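With this grant's support, we have paired protein sequences with backbone structure tokens. One protein thus recorded is set out beneath this paragraph:

_____
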Amino acid sequence: MADQSKSSQDQAAPPEERVPIGQVIFDDVFLLLMLGLVVPTLLYIVWGLWSTSVIPVYHP
């Protein structure tokens, strides 16, 4: 009798759904703040290094 009630409880319980990674990212305010500061900073640093590296060398 106990086995039947246990199996019926297992069948009645819905399986746990995984939270999508997009929802995890957008729910974390501090992660969004960090990404909003780090991504533009890195892009501007890389852009500045690239533009500096393509300047032609002066040969008098």
